[in-house]
Amino acid sequence: MNITDLGTAKLSYQDNEIELPLLEGTMGEKAIDISKLRGATGLGTLDSGYGNTGSCTSEITFIDGEEGVLMYRGYPIEQLAEKADFVEVCYLLIYGHLPSVEELTDFRNSLTHHSLIHEDMKKFFEGYPPTAHPMAILSAMVASLSAYYPEEDGDTNIIRLLAKLNTIAAFSYKKSIGQPYIYPRNDLDYAGDFLHMMHAVPAEPYELDDTLVEALNLLLILHADHEQNCSTSTVRMVGSSGANLFASIASGICALWGPLHGGANQKVIQMLERIEKDGSDYKKYVAMAKDKDSDFRLMGFGHRVYKNFDPRATVMKQSADEVLDLLGVENNPVLATAKALEEAALSDPYFAEKKLFPNVDFYSGIILEAMGFPTSMFTPIFALSRTVGWVSQWKEMLTDPQNKIGRPRQLYLGETARDYVDIEKR
Q1: What is the pLDDT of residues 9-27, one digit of tens each?
Q2: Buried b (16+ CB within 10 A) or exposed e, 290-321
Q3: Less Cβ crowding at N or C end of the chain, within 10 Å?
Q4: Full-model pTM
Q5: Torsion angle defined by CA atoms of residues 208, 209, 210 and 215, in that order, rounded to the nearest 10 degrees
Q6: Of 97, 184, 114, the residue nearest 155 (C-alpha)
Q7: Largest Cα–Cα distance of the chain, in whole Å?
Q8: Which residues are catalytic?
Q9: Binning pLDDT at 50, 70 and 90, where does residue 327 land?
Q10: How many CA atoms lie within 13 A of 22 on its CB side?
Q11: Which helix (H) or strand (E) holds 325?
């Protein structure tokens, strides 16, 4: 895709003036190119958190937070959620186009036949204590894949990573609860195989429910990519150094582990558990959220990027309703509280005025809780989904002629130059 040149923007400072290129992307986003600013003026820019700074150009994902738009490779997320499955979306994100029947069949078969991990890697799991967080194991095991699959054909290692991550994530969970590992099955699809490896035990057959498989498939699609967020930027930053695929993705997993990034749906369940333990008085907590003097906030409502509504939440709500209808909420007071809280917030004018609608984290937390996943597995499942986005961004970065090693600047606020003082004189 070509960038549209809109001329220049003028920057005036002190008695000087410089013209900087003004560019426009394919969806109308405008940006000032400051790549030559420092060389021409000696000036840098300061943008804590990079909220206004584009680190790259990309053809993968587009977000319009004001209008509630999310697209993968130009396809609206609503259409992909309705018509595609996760493996098809993986192909789209990685290769840039929807696969033909033959391409998709070959891709599925490749994922299926690369799902086993090397038997020696099982010994790594044995070395972790039972209390080890699944994300600690997941990041370490992904980095360890580079020892078994050194620099080879990039596409083959991408397939290996996507296929084996399913198995590694499930094995991490089994390790944490002391159950035997369940091997992948070639006759199951990606989402179904993960559910099987998570919940099956050798002592009895495990029956997959189509509604639950579809719900997980949907969740994986909706979390697959989200522009240059914290973990994606981490993958690109690490990858810019020439680090291999597995090391780069392991860094993204570590970034996602942070509670401010990948832990949002876990916080939803923790909030619901708090309300349930307090007598399930959700009205009290709705009032607290509206009280300016209270530091309580409803987790899973509103979004930093989406100012009106989260398009993923619209899709996920229907799935959440189907899962809860199937499994019921009568025996799970946390889920009953969630339904009551959702209804209360959606009917309250305050939340509508503030654009505080339930987001994808609210509904995904409910779905994972209903499906029997412990909160410790919420972020690994997020990583399972987001890995294809990281891989796509990493692959795009390698072929970008403008790519260079990441090296942000800073504005130094430390001490000015001073002389060393001998220890006897301090």
Answers
A1: 999 998 899 999 999 999 9
A2: eeeeeeeebbbbbbeebeebbbbbbbbbebbe
A3: C
A4: 0.93
A5: -100
A6: 114
A7: 79
A8: 303, 361
A9: confident
A10: 10
A11: helix 311-327
